[in-house]
């Protein structure tokens, strides 16, 4: 059993939860994830480690309340317990040796981009952070992202914060101005990550994305999280979750992610009591 020691809403759709898990906190690194189960009848879902505190023995997750399990997770409060938390899983991000990096987060992907920027900042790299949201009212982690980056650019689709445009608009603007990056890290919805890859490819900039395919066991045994990368089958849980953005078969990845859309919607509606 894993005790919840802190919980707060980041916006109307995303919550932060800090959990006692000392063994994971001692070993977890940026880019890795955990798999949790809320109760005995619940499904197992992967969530990226947003932070870890070895001294306190806690890990931090951030989750979007979009499906049955994340809605169920959000019914828990400080003092409650999760049944299972397994991790750290996946490969940590390779961050050593980079001098100038653009870290790009889209929506809840900023929760995953945050530990990447934080680790790079601690290593002494120059970090430009580009965060994108649909509108001003769902912007989250602005202060935290600002503290771990040299420059923070917050974009909104509707321009309600004064900076209109997708994250790719700002990235292209920076590249056009002559900025030269050793690495670009993009984390968010698949279309956003694909668009970032399309921007950086003509410049030959190494670009890494964090993939979020359907995942079940997290050990490479089930094959549910398979992707085609560089013409080869890879498993996000053990080979990733981060991959070279220029080698991913994006069409296949998007098709597989939508494979159980109807079933996911049905489960959500059942949990909400038939609400539309």
Tell me briefly what this model is.
The chain has 276 residues and is an alpha/beta fold. The chain has 2 domains: 2-89, Translation factors (Elongation Factor Tu (Ef-tu), domain 3), CATH 2.40.30.10; 100-210, Rossmann fold (3-Layer(aba) Sandwich). The protein is built from 9 helices and 16 strands.
Provide a descriptive summary of the structure in words.
The protein is an alpha/beta fold. The protein folds into 2 domains: 2-89, Translation factors (Elongation Factor Tu (Ef-tu), domain 3, Beta Barrel), CATH 2.40.30.10; 100-210, 3-Layer(aba) Sandwich (Rossmann fold), CATH 3.40.50. Helix content is 28%, strand content 30%. It is built from 9 helices and 16 strands. The chain has helices at residues 22-27, 68-73, 109-122, 142-147, 167-176, 190-200, 236-239, 250-257, 261-271; strands at 2-9, 14-20, 33-37, 45-48, 51-53, 58-64, 81-82, 84-89, 100-106, 126-133, 151-156, 183-187, 207-210, 226-229, 232-235, 242-244. Strands 11-10-9-12-13-16 form a 6-stranded mixed β-sheet, sandwiched between helices. It has a 5-stranded antiparallel β-sheet with strand order 5-6-2-1-7. The relative contact order is 0.13.
